[in-house]
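All the exercises in this workshop are built on plain-text protein records. Sequence and backbone structure share a record, each on its own labelled line. The structure tokens are whole numbers drawn from a learned vocabulary of backbone shapes. The record below serves as our worked example for the rest of this section.
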Amino acid sequence: MISRRTFLKSVTGSLLAAPLAVEAQPAKWPVIGVTLGGSRPNPYGEALRLALAERGWIDGQNVRIEYRYAEGRPERYPGFFTELLRLHVNVIVAGGGTVAALAARQATRTTPIIVFVPDPVAVSLAASLARPGDNVTGLSMQIMEIGSKKLDLLKEVFPKIERVAALCDAADDSEARAIEAAAPLRGSKVQVLRVSRADEFEGAIGTAKRGRAQALIVCASGFFTAHLKRLVDLAGQSRLAAIYEHRDFPNAGGLMSYGPSIAEMYRQAATYVDKILKGAKPSDLPIEQPTKFELVINLKTAKALGLTIPPALLQRADQVIE
């Protein structure tokens, strides 16, 4: 039988211990929702995680990062953002290109969203680069300059090139339109091919061949990145010299790429996340341009296509795959 003194002592001890137990619990961590167009393991998700850690936000210690991988299926994005909003995320990093960005904006007009798109103003995600407004900010890709540069690089490989095909994501054809505008100044004609599903790739490249395209420009798109091996293989089978958005394509066997470093863009995104978690509003954070651009050339593929890459171009490349 428990004595009255023992009972009161145990109750008093419990009451005194309770506040200490509450104080020992960690404060509620911020939650960051991240979508990615590919699958895990993902180098871009890892680049973001490491850059956040450099700013003091360590996953599992003082912040939680919730990743969602589309694995090349853009129809998954709306469901992802519904899930993330149910988790009450503090900020969304909408990787996966324009389709992901538009789905995120459709899902919420209040939760901060960081996007990576060719032209956020053209697709009505932002009022302007300097003052985006509402809940969206992030990175634009200098699409006019990149489209023109891709044409110039093809011109160095094919000085007499006249016909070029531009494959673009139907959700955002801003780069293709920029290429169309730049082509006449370079003595070329551009055939724009718009696709929205992976099963349209083969037909689009076949159309390029029937249109007597001498080369192919694959425009910037998270959707294309998720299917990069398929696109590289189709271009190779069709004997089309192609230039892509970033180094993952020539690493997979594509001829060459020119564009911003995607890993570096995710590192830049960490700066936005840091500011937003510390109280900044997305509407007050200007949309930035990428800080690092890369030219990568695959000499193996050039030889397979019977091409000779000018030495001056090889010297300017950030990486040459031999």
Summary: Residues 1-26 have pLDDT under 50 and may be disordered.
